[in-house]
Amino acid sequence: MSDSPIIVVKIGGSTLGSHDTTLEDLVALHKEGWRPAVVHGGGATISEWLNARDAPTRFVRGLRATDAESLRVVVAVLAGLINKELVAAINALGGKAIGLSGADGALIRVRQLDPELGYVGQIEQVDSEMLVSLLDAGYLPVVAPLGILWENQMLQNQILNINADTVAGEIASALAARWLLFLTDVAGISGSDGSSLARLSGREAAALIEQGTVSGGMIPKVEACLRVSESGTRTAIIDGRQPHALLAAVQRGQFLGTTIDAGEEEP
Description:
Layout: E1 6-11, H1 22-32, E2 35-40, H2 43-52, E3 59-60, E4 63-64, H3 68-92, E5 97-101, E6 108-112, E7 121-126, H4 128-136, E8 140-144, E9 146-151, E10 154-161, H5 164-175, E11 179-184, E12 189-190, E13 196-197, E14 199-201, H6 202-211, H7 218-229, E15 234-239, H8 245-252, E16 257-261
Parallel strand pairs: 1-2, 1-11, 2-8, 5-8, 6-9, 11-15, 14-16
Antiparallel strand pairs: 3-4, 6-7, 9-10, 12-13, 15-16
Helix pairs in contact: 1-8, 2-3, 5-7, 6-7
């Protein structure tokens, strides 16, 4: 099992509807010998909870600004509600999931990203040994995108919010994953004319960000793909609304979305 390929899959609440097959696909791949690790988001649910508390939601370059009150909601929703619902669902499908956040065991150490964003972290270190030990033991880790503050070479008693796409990329890098796959609620990346793009080179993807064609929440996804693909991990942003899109990508190399390669276009 320890030599089996690792895949990191990022899923968002918006792709997990009543007819979604992503969790079934994860269990099937796990039983086939792949070693999946899941990172989940939860932005829509967080916004709903904040709205119910009349707390404003503000985004800066696709990242949620998080004040002290918002952080309490973020931790409750991500590490509590969503993480445990996913773990329970995977286990009910015959999987062997275990849920944790980046604060557990100091899995993800972070520093404050930007004072403008408040309690939002930038990843300094991922404890890959912890995740590998879980994978080797046959577990499917489900990671909530939170981290623990690392300051003055010491762990601090402070949890920080982290963008889930960034977490997925850094975990994929730390694990030297075979694949980093983002499941979204859109048909991959669209070009300036609105058409879906099946494949992008690193230069093309970076240009789309610079031009503003890739914007909002898609920016951290593309940036994560660019970073991790440089070390050999294959990356794709696929439409998680399509039945068994994850199996199609991993088993058959059929991508219902966009693949991104760090290198330039093939001649």
